[in-house]
Amino acid sequence: MCSGEGRSVGLSAPRLTVQGSGLRRSTGSLIEACSRLARIPTASFRKPQLPQLRRWLAPLLALLALLGLTTPAAAWWEYGHQTVAEIAMSQVQPLTRADILALLKQDKKLETPTCPAHTIEQASVWPDCIKTLGDRFSYVFAWHFQDVETCKPFDTKSACANGACVSAQIARAQRMLADRKLPARDRLTALALLVHFVGDLHQPLHAVEHDNDQGGNKVKASYGAVTGTNLHSIWDGLLADRAISTAPPGPKGILSEISSEQRKALAAGTIEDWGRESWEIAKTDVYGPVEKDICAPTPKTPVVMDEATIEKEVPVLRLQIAKGGLRLARLLDEALDGDHPEVAHPPKPPKVIPVVAPTTPAS
Ligand SMILES: [Zn+2]
User: Fold this and answer.
1) Segments forming the whole domain that contains residue 326
2) Which PANTHER family does the entry mention (predicted)?
């Protein structure tokens, strides 16, 4: 869930550092701000992305903040993608997991040495990392989101024209991953896209558009004490980080709050259903608390996400991350293990039956 994919956005977001219970601004890194806003990865993607690194990163940041030291910003939404991927890997069938690990071992075949996909965490952010490789993968840029207008009935027809949207590409990636006749390189590419895009679909602002605001990228916003950011960036990064770090933290903590019965229920539905659900959540939980009338033009003055709203939305985003992981596990099992008979594809358009004009009897 990375912001501004395929879109032109501003570059004014500040670099952020953790301090005490909140966040404060420090001298901004233009590249990093851009990466968050324009969904362009920074060097952080090329750093080791070990889960154990993150386990002590949050307390370390808090400690440094207590000491009054500023630290580089954590890689915000990478954390979200990796958490979705880790939840999925903890839930897939053993044979599925073995298939995935075997594919990941072949990541050199991708020929993207600066964007490795040797672990599921790396694969989960690979579709962002490859944006640094220029035109080679530019065809993927528009696949991270779907701009479904908030103030019209839900309809993905124009947002998914020619399959250029996140839900259509989830279905395509799943089919390609399932096709064992394809070369490993293609199937590993499909795996990385599938893992990443399921994460994207569950960030509500990747499934919505209001007044051409580019999924909230054009909505100026403040987050607690943090000013100069935008709504998309908040949900992609700041709030995601807060949600995942809230106790009980991390993939295990998030899953621990969901019973096995609930997990089954959450994994149900189709890709179309999940996109619609994100679209609804965007209206009720993302725009709703900060814009009085979401069908009015985008506010010119920054919207305010205060602490009460942040606390209210943390469980919403934690649940979205859990859903993303559980649903991804199901899609992976369907593709690789054959354990699930149904494959979730977006509904096919109705067949158009040509109307045959009645023939006029010859007189
Ligand atoms: Zn993305």
Assistant:
1) 15-336
2) ENDONUCLEASE 4 (PTHR33146)
**Residue 129 resides in a domain:** yes
Tell me how long the chain is: 363
Question: Which region among 15-29, 229-243, 248-262, 333-347 has the lowest average model confidence (pLDDT)?
Answer: 15-29
Q: How far is the CA of 86 from the centre of ligand 1 (A)?
A: 17
CA distances for 331 relative to 54, 118, 170, angstroms: 26, 20, 9
**Gap from CA of 269 to ligand 1 centroid (Å):** 22
Residue 352 binned pLDDT confidence (cut-offs 50, 70, 90): low
In a domain, 38, yes or no: yes
What distance in angstroms lies between residue 3's CA and the mean position of ligand 1's atoms? 7
On whether residue 154 sits in a domain, the answer given is: yes
Q: What is the CATH number of the domain that holds 301?
A: 1.10.575.10
Domain membership flag for residue 341 = no
Cα distance between the two ends of the chain: 68
Q: Residue 353 C-alpha to ligand 1 middle, in angstroms?
A: 38
Instruction: Give the total number of structural domains in the chain.
Output: 1
Measured in angstroms, how far is the CA atom of residue 80 from the centroid of ligand 1? 11
Q: How far is the CA of 262 from the centre of ligand 1 (A)?
A: 27
